[in-house]
Amino acid sequence: MAQRDPARRHRATAILGWALIVLAVLGAAELLGGYLLYRHLPGSGLAILHALGLDRSTDAAPPPAPAGDETLDLTAEPNPFFRDVPDGVLVLYHPFLDYVGVYSDEPTAAGTRFFHTDNDYFGFRNPDSRLYFAPDDGFLIVLTGGSEAAGYSHPVTIAAYLEDDLNDSGGIDGCPVRVLNLSMNSYVLANEIQSFVHLAYALRPDVVISHSGWNDLIYGVIAPGPFKVLGLNYFGPMVDWPNNLYGRPKPQSFRFAVHESQNDRLPEVFFAMIDKYRDIVTANGAYFLPGLQGYRTALEATGTPMDEVHARVHAYYADLKRGAARIPGYADFTGRADIGFVDTVHSTPDSAPLIARTYAARIRAGTADGTIRLNPHRVHCR
User: Domain for residue 68, yes or no?
Assistant: First the structure.
């Protein structure tokens, strides 16, 4: 058998080695070029690299907060979902948010009058809609919750008192404080998460407060089991909305009544939703501050199925209270003697500043000990 030429075999091996080196260099260059390209694409490219484990940067975070668009004329372009709303309609359908339109009530000689408060472009109770589109460089707090946080019984809201309290003491870390209130009557945690993601996520707030508890229980005990185990405790009257949507208007059929399915899991699922909300907020660079809202502890007999609904809510609230006590930083407003109530769950007007003061103290303490820091993904005033 003929012997192979050793020199020829050495040359072939060398050529193969250099070819592999060139391919490796070209591959690395292509990967680096793709990485740099994706780093400059909004969101999706960097997310792909991160998911593949190729992004090793320490600032792999959502894109920076928008600078705002001063060309927007909110008067010339009103929200189309508030057009031609019939008289007496309070809860307003809105895509991406389910429903909006913060409202309150007042007694009159003819009975209780319900009315919308002074709401912003998206139907929440804020004095200035421009914050959605042109965030300033101050310390930004977002408050979410139901009607109590929205200020159903408060001429001045918890959010307004909180903003004033912190600014009166010089702001936070040298920055003025702004509070964006995304609370709405009957909102549950699923709604709070939804409103935060769609309206506040891009603003990169520094603190997000969830003032919640009651709605997830009262709408949870009446919801079907498959909804409540996922924390999707929807606003009860929504079950009648499809009738109008499908062109078959009928009288409202919704009634408060306990639905006996998976109710014992409501406290567990509530804290799972709190954890979900915290994860989203933390990933956004903010500090999550949950608060367990108070309620009137005396049960009132009405002789209706609502009595059983309230009894269940009170029983499960004890579980929420125990759960909140095990979570560091959870603000518990239940059982406070200084907070009064005008009805089952809405506190008196003079209770609003007390609630705000509690949150303000938590925020001051957190910034002092380093627990709460300025959101690193937004430029601040200093």
Answer: no
**Band of residue 189 on the pLDDT scale cut at 50, 70, 90:** very high
Structure tokens at 256: 């408060």
CB 256 within 8 A of CB 236: yes
pLDDT tens-digit series, residues 301-360: 999 999 999 999 999 999 999 999 999 999 999 999 999 999 999 999 999 999 999 999
- Radius of gyration of the chain measured on its C-alpha atoms: 27
> Do 84 and 18 share a structural domain?
no
Place of tokens 């029983």: 315
Q: Which domain holds residue 205?
A: 80-369
* Whether residue 123 is found in the same domain as residue 216: yes
The tens digit of pLDDT for each residue in 301-314 reads: 999 999 999 999 99
Global pTM?
0.83
Q: Is the pLDDT at 249 greater than 90, yes or no?
A: no
Say if CB 235 and CB 216 are below 8 A apart: no
Number of domains in the chain: 2
Residue 28 has pLDDT above 70, yes or no: no
Residue 129 lies in a domain: yes
Q: Higher model confidence: residue 53 or residue 220? A: 220
